[in-house]
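pinned: reference chain
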Amino acid sequence: MNDVALACIVAVAGCVQWLTGMGFALVAVPALVLLIGPADGVLLANCGAGLVSCAGLVGGWGRVRLRAMLPFVAASVCTVPVGTWARARLPEPVLMVVLGLLVCLAVGLVARGLRLPALGGTGGALAAGGAGGFMNAAAGVGGPPMSLYGVNAGWSMREFVPNAQFYGVVVNVVSVAAGGLPDLTPRAWAVAGSALAAGALAGRCLAGRVPDRGVRRMVLGLAVMGGAVAVAKGLWGL
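pinned: its structure tokens
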């Protein structure tokens, strides 16, 4: 395993997660899948996203909208086992294609800022949360349904980030509990942990200084490039 590549991937993803409340998996999963494999790549993304969300939530807990988020996270928890089951049973090339396509589809929906009246209210929270839980466990990319939910709710970035962090803590803890920890060497754990801390610290320093539009474009651009590479590699292995 290339330690430098692992460190760069995790650091950039950790920085983005702190800035936006989500995005760790969109940035990291396609590259981690290529570097350490689909199963461990998704699980490492779950760990990293959950830890950064937990740290960020410390200062933003007071802005979490529990009434809106409880049905969302409840639905996501219920669908995590289904996503874990699907990830464990798909052949690796097929899983890589599925992961890459899910990332690209999610990027397209988020980039368009799709507004769906059906995502309003409790029913919308249950539908989006269920999709997020499945995608998080199967592909490590549970953020896009949360993003679509926030867009349709009309939340500002200040409102969105703590709610996304709350969701990130819950869904990633459950995903790791269902799927286990990634099979990494102690050295790889140390590299990933150090890079995650550095990335989160960089994100904290940059928060409020980087325009939201610039961060959003960076996340989507990196994600779609990585997703396309994962699809290509999966198709090559079929």
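why pinned: Residues 212-237 form the longest helix (26 residues). The CA atoms of residues 164 and 206 lie 18 Å apart.
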